[in-house]
Fold this sequence. Notes:
By secondary structure, the chain is an alpha/beta fold. Helix content is 24%, strand content 39%. It has one domain (9-391).
Amino acid sequence: MEITSTLSRDLVLEVSKKLSEPQWLLEKRLAAWDTFARLPYPTTRTEEWRYTDITEVPFEELKLELPTGNLSVIPQAVKDRLAQAQLSGYAVFVGSDLVHVELPEDLKKQGVIFSNLHDAIANHPKLVEENLFKAVNWSDLVGTQVNRPENSKIPALNAALFTHGVFLYIPSNVEFSKPMGVFKYLEGGQLSSSRTLIVGDINSQAVYIEEYISPARVSASVNTSSTEIIVSNGAKVRHAHIQLLGQGFYHFHRQRAHLQRDAALNDLVVNMGATISRADVQSEMLGAGSSSEMLGLYFTSGNEHVDHYTLQHHVADHAHSDVLYKGAAKDQSRTVYAGLIKVGVGAQKTDAYQTNRNLLLSEDARSDSVPQLEIGANDVKCSHGSSTAPVEPGELFYLMSRGLPRHMAQQILVKGHMTDVLTRIPIEPLRQHIESIIEEKVRV
């Protein structure tokens, strides 16, 4: 079946047909396409995008990446990660093709579902239909975005034309502490679009890591990803999104979690690659006693540009949230952080914190930080803060005077700067992996 290469409504129809999707999903795709087609792209006049110019991103010039059905070998970079990640199960995508998936028998017997999203649509239609697009929706705007519909442009593109994804379901009272790992190896040169749907049922516990990997340099490429996390009463989900894409990639990630009564999310976002990357990470405390920990780490070099937006949306009472994002920039690179704590009228006894810290390793690097509060209740505890500072010359001189080369002295200072985030990552192999990435980035 020949697929048209131009973004259009016909392309949506062709993709849905190729993937043998049910009518309800096609209708959702078409609604998303209609939203995408009528909205402008966000510009620097859009408040949440004022520091990030995406006018040169070739969204509509690239061919959509589609599953080929070919069996590919697992790339060496992914094999290396599998050798040290200590996972309970894993899946590997090369482009849009799922080339391997593995789930332990004991978890299968307990009812855990870990599969290609389209396999789940076919085999567990009710479960997927109830939850897909529930958290990340092209028309569901929250917080300061409510009057700026252009913020839905890229999520609508993702919803209309996603070609692959992952579904993880953890039944009630089932727990596992070793991570499920999903590795997406992208070769570049195309528009790649994926979705992740995680559903933790009542009193379940799970750990999920997704990593994006590519060659070090690629021709112009766009990757859009959406992650939906549904955390039921008393459930706990630990999630990590790690982006290590090469130069030439433009990466746009939208993530939102729905937290019910006494639910807990521990989230980590790591951005250490791509020419431009943007992560929009949101937690909605919908149930009393829910809790969200949102951690972020980023390092930029060359002309890289990374942009983070976080939302802690407190709807229910007695909920807790904590954001800690820390990063470093060198050369002519730029980092952006904007965050909002939004507390609804009925969200009394909210306990919310937001912190962003940035370290500049060169005179030409730049960081912008915009923490915000919007409080609708009168019995809350909320605070926010940010700081941006260059490397202290005296500290660098001290380390170098002890015989350390400059790059190693900078490694020590950067790791010291990020320590309070790193120490909050309880998965030792993941923490070591991130530390090694930081070391390599500083050295280059």
